[in-house]
Every structure is written in C-alpha cells, then in structure tokens.
Amino acid sequence: MTQTYSKDDPTLLVDSPAAIIDAIPPYPPRSEREAEFYAVRDGEMLINLGPQHPSTHGVLRVVLKIEGEKIIDLDPVLGYLHRGVEKLCENADYHQAICYTDPLEYISSLFMELAPVMAFEKLLDLEAPRRAQYIRVLTCELNRVASHALFMGWLALDLGGLTPLLYAFVERDEIVEMLAAQTGQRMLFNYFRIGGVNGDLNHDFMSRLGDWMSRALKQVEANQRLLNENEIFLKRTKGLGVVDRGTALRLGMTGPSLRASGVPYDVRRAHPYLVYPELAFDVPTREEGDTYARYLIRLDEIKQSIHMIDQCLHKMPDGPVMAKIPRLIRPRPGRAFAAIESPRGQYACYAISDGTDQPFRMHLHDPSFVNLQAMGVVLPGNLIADTMAIMASLDPIMGGVDK
Amino acid sequence: MTVMARPWRRLSPTGRIVVPLLVLLVLLGLLGFVGLVTGLIPGLVDLVIRLAQANVGIVRFVIAVTAILLISIPIAFINGYAELKVIALMQSRIGPNRVGPFGTLQAVFHGFKMLAKEDFTPLGADRPAFTLAPVVVFLTVVLSFLVIPFAPGLFGADLNVGLLYFFAVGGLSVVGLLMAGWSSFNKYSLLGGLRSAAQIVSYEIPLTLSVVGTMSLNGIVEAQGGQFWHWYVFQQPLGFAIFFIAVSAEANRTPFDLTEADSEIVAGYMTEYSGMRFGFFYFAEYVSLFVISALTAVLFLGGWHAPVEIHAVAAFFGLTVPAVSLDPGQLGVGLLLLLTLGPLVGTLVFTVPVALWRTDWSIWRALLVGFLLFNVAVGALITIYAYVASEVVAGVFWFLAKTFTLVLVFIWIRTTLPRVRVDQLMAFAWKWLLPAALLNIFVTAAAIVVLR
Questions:
Q1: Is the pTM of this model over 0.90?
Q2: How many whole angstroms separate alpha carbon A138 and alpha carbon A114?
Q3: Looking at A46, A77, A108, which one is the last position of a domain?
Q4: What number of C-beta contacts closer than 8 Å exist between A and B?
Q5: Which of A49, A96, B26, B395 could cross-link A62 (Cys pair, CB 3.0–4.6 Å)?
C-alpha cells in the first residue's frame, strides 16, 4: 500500500522559510548510515557542495558535514547526469552503440569509443589493419595530451589561479582543431569504426600535427613553469590528500591516480593492446600519493605521449585503414572484454552478443567513478578549500561517473 | 516616450550609453552658458573659493566628500576596465573590444547592466542588514579616501592621525562583510563573512606595525621629498614588503581573496546579492584597489613627488631651471587674436600635410583629421604648460602614475598566483608577518638611536 500525502498533514507543516531550505536529508532516511550522517550534532553544519557549484567538474553533489571549515564527513549524491548509456547501447546496433559511448568522458572521447570498438572486434573475431591500429594509437595519445593539459588548468583554477586554464586551453585547442581536421568534430569525434578508422590521415591533419610537434614539448614545459615554480601552489598541493598504496589498490583505483601512489600499473604495459608493444615508453610512477604527485604524473605522461606520437609517425606502415566487414554486423553469440588505458585509468567494455545485430548487454567500466571513491577516504579532516584541489587531482568527469 | 522608443531600439549598445551622455553634456553646456551669462556661476565659484579660503571645516568636508564620491566613479570604471583588459592580455585573450573604442566603455556597460537587474532579497534573509551591508562596505572604502593627499594642498582632510584613521575606517569594512555574510541566509555567505572577519582582523596588526611613526599622511609625503632614493621603499624595504602583503590581504586581493573564493565558497559573502547591491560590492572593490595603491604610493613611493627633483639636478650641474610665468592675461588683445585665429591657422597647418599624405581623401576628411590633430596638439601643450606651471598638476600626475602602476602590479599578481588556504593565511600573518614587523620596528629604532 502506498502512503498518500495531503497538504493538511501536520508533519509537512512548515512554519519558517528556514525549514524549507534546510531540508537536505532525504526524509525518512533510507539507511542507518544516512540517519547517522544527517543527525547533526552541536557545532556541525551540513553544506551542499553542488550540483550547481563552480568547481565540482560537472554535476557532482557532495553533502559535506563541516565543523568550522573542517570536513568531518561527506555524502556524495550521484546520478545528476545519468542518461542510461548502457541501456541505450542495448537498443542500438553495433555501429550506433559507439556514438552513445562517445560523450561519456567528453574530454577524452576517442578513448571512450576505442574500448567498445575493440570489444566488438573481439566478438567478430577480426583485427583492424596495422595502419588503422597505428592511427588509433596516434590519435588517442594526442587526445591524452589534450585531456592532461586541461587537467592542469582545472587544478590551477580550483586552487584560484586563473591563468593556467587559459594556457591549457590554448594547448588543447590546437590538438582539438587538429583532430577536427581529421575526424570532422572538435569534441565527440566518432572516428573509430569496427574494423578500423573512418578515413586515412589527411594533409590538413598532418601539417597541423607536424607544426605542433615541433614545439609541443617546449610549450608544455613553458606552460607548466607557471605552476611548478609557484610557492603557493606547492604549499597547497604537497602532502595533501594522500592515498597510500594499499588504499588505492583496495579502492580499485587505476590510472595516474594509482601510479602516483606507487603502483606501476598501466594497461598499455600490463595487458598490451593495439601496437603498444612495439612502442618504447616509460610508465612514470611516484611514491608520495598526494595531489602534487598526481599532478606531476600527468606532466610526465604528456611527455611520454609526445614521445609515442613521434614513434607512431616514424613506424606507421602503409596499407588500408579498414578491414573488410559485413555491412550488417551480427556477431556469433559470445562475450568479449576489452580494456584500455584512458587518461583517467582503466576504461573497459564488456559486451555480450546474442547473435542479433544489437548487443545483448554492454557494461562500461569507467575509471572516473572508481577514482572518485577515494574522495570519501581522503577528504575527512581536510578543509573545504582542499576539497576542490583533491577532487580536481582525481580528475573525475561526471559524464563518465553517472553514465 | 513612444516617439523615442523606435530610435532607441535601433541604437547599438554603445549608442545607448553615448547618446544619453551626449544629451547630458549638451544640457550641462547650456546650463553653463546661461550661468555664465547671468553671472550665477562666477558668483558661486567666488563664494566657494571664499568659503574654502576661510577654511571652514564643514565646508571643506562637504566639498571633499562630494569630490571624492564623484571621482570614485571614474576610478572604479578605469580599474574595472584595466582589470578586464590587462588580465585578458596576460592570458593571451583579446578582452573587451566591443563597447566603445577598445572596449573602454565595457565597465560603464556593466554598471548599466547592474542597474537593470532585479534587486533580489532571498527568502529568510535579514532584510535591513542585507540592504545596508553594501552601503557600509562602500562607505568605508570611500571614507578612507578622505585622508589621501593627491598633491600639495589637494587632500580631503589633513588629520594628524591620518594613517590611524585610514586603518580604522578600512577595518570597519569587516562589519559590512560580516553583515552581508550573516544576513544572506546562505551557508556559503556565512563562511565568506567569517573568513573575512578572521582575515582582516589578523592582517590589521602587521599592517599597522609595519608603518609606525608619523601619522599625518601629508607629513609622510613631505618627509620623502627630494630624489627617489629618499622614498621610504628604499629606506624600509622590509616594511614595504610587509605592508604590501598585508594591504593586499586587507583589500581581499588575490592571493588572499578567500572571502570571495569562487572555486570554494561560490562567491563568499556576495553569493546572494544581485542587481545594484552586488554592483556596490564590485564598485567598492575597485575603489579599494585604487585606495590601497594610493596609500602604498603615499607611504613608500613618495606620493606626489617626482622621482627626480629637476632643480636639484640642475643645481648639481651649476644650472638653474627658469621659472615659467606665462599669464594669459598679459597678452591683452593678443589673447583675443590668438583665440580667433589660432584654431583656424592651427587646423590648416595640420590639414596640409594630411591632405598631401593621403591624396585619395576628400578635403573635408583631411580637414576633420587636421582639426582633431590640432586638438590633440593643443591639449598636449596645455597639459605640459599646466605641469610646468602648477605644482598641483605635477603632483597629481606623479601621484596617479605611481598609483596606477601599483594597480597594475596588483592585477598582475592576481593573474599569476593561486589562492592560499585559510590556515596558511592565518599562519602566515601570525608566524611570519607579525614577527617580521616587530623586528623591523626594533631594528629601525636601534638604528635611529645609534645614528643619533
């Protein structure tokens, strides 16, 4: 039986405007933990961080329990950007499903399409031509540089520095324009196809890439000098939000956030895919596990990515960029799993085929969601101002978290 | 009004600012003409001058306050525009370039926009305090303007406790910020208000301790006369550093803008404000940027003194600078001739080269350009004459030059540095600035005793 509410219900009577605005907790509490969290003791205060807040990187809502400026406890509320991408994919054919995964982490959308494409290729038991694989690696690493550059800008902005964001955007804009020349889109590229890529590298892209490569390393380093030699930035990030090795592993964190805690796990090295085994690159790791380490890891990864782009350009073979595939894709019934290293960590796609032209089930494992959990471990005990720095250093994209 | 509605709609945003201003200018011109003809204006000016010469306190105060309120408006606009444009240039952007030449009217446009917005009071806010808070904040800033000497003899009031007055009134702004934070009925506002209270009260102490000594600002400027190495910044570098840091914290400038940290507490105490009340906070911020720069210039950069005393330099080489004494009245009928023929001849003199240079232009266009060039030249000549002939103009020139240089430095700092954390801010004030200020006092006192 469902309970019916009436306006005359005395429990719903509001006698002051304060009562309307203070009603943050879901009523009645849905779990013991919730009841405990929303029982506010003397001197404590609940504050709603988001979903509309300048620096929650999208629509993340975190209810903070604070004492003065110190955070005692927090309750993240997710789902403001939930679109049901996995369900949408189940109702689309294999080509269309790729478009739905594109905007998950809209900062690095090439990676978002790469994992499903690889999973579907495994289902079909086909392999993309080698030139297509090189092109995939090349464009993905470019996208990684763009994503990491933007991360630096955001971290600085959340710490109150205005300028690095603009410099980051200059960097990102060059790459994005370059990719737009190749793929036709600036943000949601939709470039990878099952069995290859959509179109060979064109002249516009190559000339822009050559132009950028000639000064990329210098430019990136010049931009970072504004932060790396800044005393206030160092004071605010060093030793802040330390995630130790064990915690990071137990939480299942991946990507730069994990490598900053001293675990040299990189999907490109641990479970190689595409042509990564043929490329020489380091997996930078750091031991500190703090915000500054997570920042520096990304700096190092940008340099590694530029190195890899260089190798791709030198080793790229001639040949077709698409495998011969049937127009209508109907894989045999089966399951396939493909994991890649996205700029935020291990992004994976698990697809089940039932023999029709639509995936029976498609699960997307998103690194943002997993890494965001570290917030609950790290934040209590810090100040409100540090919330932003720690959150920015974990680099979640809410499109991926909420799916 | 319906007759005006159609042309008004057709105007560009720039036109909507310029046209009313032009109308106002024409009306003022007409009024001035009528006043001059009927002898009202000379009479009034005479009265004001006599009252000012009689040095009646209340008259001087009223004049000073009116003048300060009036000049605070263009100062806020200039600072607002400078902040937009300079930050844009430092971030490799273009910045405002739509409203007015090089976007110079952007700040004015922002002001008009503020006026047009809804003046909203949130549900549950403490109305009187919420309404009064921007006024309090604005007043404290404008009142602290009163003691700043712009040039020899050009100041609101020469209090013998001028510096103390400045700090006292400046410290009052915390009351306004707390009122805003508390009355807004918003937790972010509350946090911002409390932060501002803690910050301003802490930084008041090193700020005051860094400049112990004479309290009269006029006296301080006069003591720095001579060459630029007589400025206090070269005699008290540590004091200057402490003062500069503390004053930027006092005025909530980056890296100490914790009270309005947009990435942490949305907009701090301003979160719930809208319309012109919000505008007042911004207004106060820009005027206070000018005021702190002016105070720094007065205390450490010699105020109205030029960096190089030309007479002393000339005397060093055995020369004397001739005193300029050109009274236009001496010319007699010649003045009339100059006024009638000068513009014609001058315009022609500038038109001829323009017409020869740009042969494709029509003669009217060349004449217009020649006339504008003539105006520029005359303006420059008058400025130079005024600078040489009048101590006050020279003083105002150097004072404004120093002040706006400091404004640019503050903007530069804002572009470069991230924000400090609240505990680091407090630790810095109590653990570093305060001991440094005390050490500075001790060393200075010891030096004075030893030198005597």
A1: no
A2: 12
A3: A77
A4: 90
A5: A49
